[in-house]
Design a protein that fits this description.
Blueprint lengths: L2 H11 L4 H8 L3 H9 L6 H11 L3 H4 L13
Helix pairs in contact: 2-3
Protein name: HTH cro/C1-type domain-containing protein
Pfam family, one: HTH_3
InterPro entries: Cro/C1-type_HTH, Lambda_DNA-bd_dom_sf
Length: 74
Amino acid sequence: MDYIKRIRALREDNDYKQREVAALLNVGQRTYADYEYGKTRIPLDSMIVLAKFYGVDMNYICGVSNVKNSFPEK
């Protein structure tokens, strides 16, 4: 599963609307939808925000691992 499917699955599993997550990332709903449909690549800094928001590490959100480890604390 790639990051496109992961960010959508995480959003849906947590019962968020695209507009809510878009607001978190300071982008429009259409831009966020383009991320989920793979029309536009999501910036790395936005991926980090999503990983923190959903409490999962970057390996999971990027599809490197299927284990939902917690986002690391500093």
